[in-house]
Design a protein that fits this description.
alpha+beta; N-terminal domain of MutM-like DNA repair proteins; Helicase, Ruva Protein, domain 3; 2 domains; 4-stranded antiparallel beta sheet; 10 strands; elongated; DNA-binding
Length: 252
DNA sequence: ATTGAGACCTGTCGGC
DNA sequence: TGCCGACAGGTCTCAA
């Protein structure tokens, strides 16, 4: 999309999770994509019009680039580009999201304004994690899914990071908080586990389509723990409505 | 103010 | 084969 002009936008329905903004297709038509970036799980396309397109895949959304006009079920938005190809947004569950906002005010957009630090940035470290968890009575796993604590971490990698760090998902979040100025070892372990698991995932592009059994704990209920010499068996439980997987032996 | 439950929507899978 | 419930990678709103 970068450097291409959006000739025309086809909207196949009035909404995804929320209605498309007013005059959505018209505001995009004629604009050139200047840059594609990301914040948390939001994709951001800065346009020559001075507006930015915010996009979120939700649970089941995907984009494909195509040269043909063939359309599939759940194709909701088609961007026709000056290159001759089209970018198609497909989303069966329609938990996806799109909106337009002025680029110079993007950080004030409701979807972006409360977000915590990017996990792979220098701003996110043991100290930042410890401070964000201070006073939180919620379980540590729930705290990791709180986008104000760390931006863009989802259910799979929250659970994976806790296993790497050897921390129980049920532990109260405040127990990893700062102890007299210095972050605890647990906060150091967890912050670096988050960075590690995300860096690995990006490296292998595993998130693009997850395959069962490739994770340390996620989706491995009743299977053996993969930590060397640990004899534990992975358990599953529900926390705040989401599935948590963990090893009761090596995660404390 | 935090926190958890429920809602949003469709598809898939396992059990009967 | 078919029906039914459980569950799915996210986020928002609402009521304790």
């Amino acid at each position: 999309m970068v450097g291409r002009r959006i000739l025309q936008v086809e909207l196949r329905r009035p909404d995804l999770r929320t209605p498309f903004p007013r005059r959505f297709a018209q505001r995009l038509a004629g604009a050139t994509t200047v840059a594609l970036t990301r914040r948390a799980k939001y994709l951001l396309a800065a346009l020559s019009s001075g507006e930015s397109l915010l996009m979120h895949l939700g649970m089941s959304g995907s984009f494909r680039v195509t040269a043909t006009d063939a359309t599939a079920t759940h194709d909701h938005v088609v961007f026709h580009l000056s290159s001759g190809s089209a970018v198609v947004f497909n989303d069966p569950r329609r938990f996806g999201f799109m909106d337009l906002a002025r680029t110079d005010r993007l950080d004030r957009h409701p979807a972006l304004k409360g977000l915590g630090p990017e996990p792979l940035s220098e701003a996110f470290d043991a100290g930042a994690l410890a401070r964000a968890c201070a006073g939180k009575r919620t379980p540590l796993k729930s705290a990791l899914l709180d986008q104000q604590v760390v931006a863009g971490l989802g259910n799979i990698y929250a659970v994976e990071a806790l296993h790497i760090a050897g921390l129980s998902p049920q532990r109260q979040a405040s127990t990893i908080a700062t102890a007299g100025g210095e972050p605890r070892d647990s906060a150091r372990a967890l912050a670096s586990a988050i960075k590690q698991v995300l860096a690995e995932a990006i490296d292998r592009q595993t998130s693009a389509r997850y395959r069962a059994g490739r994770f340390r704990v996620y989706d491995r209920e009743r299977e053996p723990c993969r930590r060397p010499r640990c004899r534990g068996v992975i358990r599953r439980r529900t926390q705040a409505g989401r599935s948590t997987f963990y090893c009761p032996v090596c995660q404390r």
